[in-house]
Amino acid sequence: MLKSEQKRKAAASVTLLQHIHCETPGIISDCLQSADIDMRFVRTFKRNPIPSNLDTQAGLIVMGGPMSVYDHDQFPFLLEEQRLIGEALKDDKPVLGVCLGSQLLAATLGAEVKSGAQKEIGWHPVTLTEYAATDALWKELPARFTAYHWHGDVYDLPQGAVSLASSELTPCQGFRYGTNAYGFLFHMEVTEKIIKNMVAEFQDELEEQCITAESIIQKTREHVSALQTVGDRVFRRWVKLLN
């Protein structure tokens, strides 16, 4: 490999949009670091401006958050995020959307994002579709596993996208658009620390849903390791799309 190529690879970076302090990239960070890819954080909760474009950035990651895609009046930066997602799609740069990020990706692709029949919070099974068996990120992974969820909004499968996963409450839990844009409504990036921070931050929402923080933490100890094994495989494969 030429020195110039080594330098370019070492300098590779992705833009990561973070909407609240407790929803960090988790194990996604480990996957990026192992590939020598830096993260350019844009933290909207700290009023960081949304970039006008990705410029030399290799891709875009959009994390979760407590707001809704359609809360434009309260959070005007959401429309700017959709514009940036659109630019990434136009330039064929890899996109990864997690929870709210997947909703923003779906909305950018023209799908309706709306309030679900009920909130899906905690640990619930996810079932992969038949298309996941040949997907670049999902092939050779378990067809069913228990994932971590925290969402009230859902979306229709965007036109032209491929459905990858569902749950009992939510028909579209994950999708791929093109070859390198992915949206996952459920969380695979989480660590036990992230989950503890989330249940502390969103305690009022848990009480509204008659869910105890203790029940989520107990199930976290049971399921998080297996989920991280799945997430690690998926995210490492997505990171390879950046090269």
Order of helices and strands: HEHEEHEHEEEEEHHH
- Principal-axis shape: globular
Total number of domains: 1
Mean pLDDT across all residues, rounded? 95
Helix coverage percent: 25-40%
CATH topology: Rossmann fold
Strand tally, please?
Answer: 9
Q: Which structural class do the helices and strands define?
A: alpha/beta
Structure, described:
It is a single chain. It is globular, with a radius of gyration of 17 Å. The protein has one domain (3-240): Class I glutamine amidotransferase (GATase) domain (Rossmann fold). The protein is built from seven helices and nine strands. The relative contact order is 0.16. The protein is of the alpha/beta class and 243 residues long.
At a glance:
This protein has 243 residues and is an alpha/beta fold. The chain has seven helices and nine strands, in the order H-E-H-E-E-H-E-H-E-E-E-E-E-H-H-H.
Keywords:
243 residues; alpha/beta; Rossmann fold; 9-stranded mixed β-sheet
Show the helix and strand layout.
Blueprint: H1 3-10, E1 13-18, H2 27-34, E2 38-43, E3 59-62, H3 77-90, E4 95-98, H4 100-108, E5 113-128, E6 144-155, E7 162-166, E8 174-177, E9 181-184, H5 192-201, H6 203-208, H7 213-240
Parallel strand pairs: 1-2, 1-3, 3-4, 4-9
Antiparallel strand pairs: 5-6, 5-7, 7-8, 8-9
Helix pairs in contact: 2-7, 3-4, 5-7
